[in-house]
Design a protein that fits this description.
lyase, EC 4.1.99.29, 44% helix, 2 domains, 1,4-dihydroxy-6-naphtoate synthase, 12 helices, five-stranded mixed β-sheet, six-stranded mixed β-sheet, D-Maltodextrin-Binding Protein, domain 2, MqnD
Amino acid sequence: MSKILKMGYSPCPNDTFIFHALASGAINIEPYTLNITLADVEELNSLARAGRMDICKVSVHAAAHILNDYILLRAGGAMGRGVGPLLLTQEPCTIEALNGKRIAIPGRHTTANLLFNLMCREAGIQVETVEKVFDEIMPAIVSGEVDGGVVIHEGRFTFKGLGLSKVADLGKWWEDYSGLPIPLGCIAIKRSLGSEVASLINSAIRRSLTLSYVDPDQSWPYIKEHAQEMDDDVVSEHIDTFVTDYSMDVGEEGEKAVSRLLLEAAQMDSIELPAGPFFIEEE
């Protein structure tokens, strides 16, 4: 009799591209089967913090809060250069001009919010943050409900069509600040499942990603089903941007980047990280 593992990831094209073969059953992980939940990034962060997912895509910021109970897989994450969140406003301005303003964020424990807080700290400003689901942020800027917003996912490719202005590329800011790629999200698995299960799932994610690379037509309907109104070209650009070599294996540089961001998160949120390692061992 198979054992059920609860797994969560987002409906964004990079995740559905990576996990399609697992979701479709094309990848065998016997004696386990997956009960999959697709949800917004901040909802996934909350599910993991509540211990309700066995395997879960989480923001690296959120990962800092769950590492006593979870360990990070080496595959399946989102990391790279030139892939970070954007800080947008209606009219061009400087970061300093946003002091005291209302800024929408896609969740308190998202990596985007952590980067924004770090940049505000370095700029010496304070803002009022307003939490919103990521796809509500650009409309809120356009309507004037907020003075600006931190935009993730496909907003990176579509904001100009709404007449919005880029104040800062938070990923570029991080790269200049740390000298490292920006780790946006990672896959966490419960430590209680043990190293063998963690290695099994890590390997399965790599095989799932490989199948999507080899035959992308197989995953396309699944990707489009969950991409909703997203234009085909935007879907493709989304995948090309957020699925990188780091998605197959975090690598040494990726480990350094995650560790650095986890340390920044721990300091920002006044929490203590457990002793490492944060990632499962190399396969």
